[in-house]
């Protein structure tokens, strides 16, 4: 099983801990695909929720998935700057169909000035009990929240000033 190649169009599938599908992004263009990291981009792609409802993303986004980190990062390019939506999640898996991960409810929203809000702590606590998250998962997730916040403070990886610009420029070469 290979990894998606630059220029390939793939789907992104988000699941919950119980194995049920949570959300599907219909089309994402691969900009980098290795066993450790997948970077993709999309713009105005259809998103299907678990209940069948659909919506369309409003702006271009660069998506960052890593095989070692329990989070993924979406940089949304808006007129007033880059906003980030970070999902605390399992590391990604690739199965020749889609990039897949388990969404663990906790999210971090980062604003262009690099201030941020931790979101959905109540949803996390509810699902932790409902789906019986193992204690080891709880510990891993909390440690990865700290790692993610460190990346934000240090402007590391996708939070570095040039990251989104460089990958967006590459994306534009595929859609021209």
Can you characterise this structure?
There is one protein chain. This protein is α+β, with helices and mostly antiparallel strands and 176 residues long. The protein has a single domain (9-175), classed as FomD barrel-like fold (Beta Barrel). Helices cover 24% and strands 43% of the residues. It is built from 3 helices and 11 strands, in the order βββββββββββααα. The protein has a 7-stranded mixed β-barrel. The longest helix is centred in the last third of the chain and has 20 residues, at 135-154. This is Nucleoside triphosphate/diphosphate phosphatase. Its EC number is 3.6.1.15, 3.6.1.6. Its cofactor is Mg(2+). Mg(2+) 2 binds at residues 105, 107, 120, 123. Keywords: Hydrolase, Magnesium, Metal-binding.
Overall average pLDDT: 97
Fraction of residues in H or I helices: 10-25%
| Strand order within the widest beta sheet | 1-2-3-6-7-8-10
Name of the top-level CATH class: Mainly Beta
Name the poorly predicted regions: none
- Spatial gap, N to C terminus: 30 Å
What is the total number of structural domains? 1
The biggest beta sheet reads:
7 strands, mixed, barrel
Q: What is the SS-derived class?
A: alpha+beta
CATH architecture: Beta Barrel
The CATH superfamily appears as: FomD-like
User: Beta-strand level of the residues, as a percent range?
Assistant: 35-45%
Rg value: 16 Å
**Shape from CA axes?**
globular
Number of helices: 3
- The CATH topology name reads FomD barrel-like fold
Q: What is the N-to-C order of secondary-structure elements (H for helix, E for strand)?
A: EEEEEEEEEEEHHH
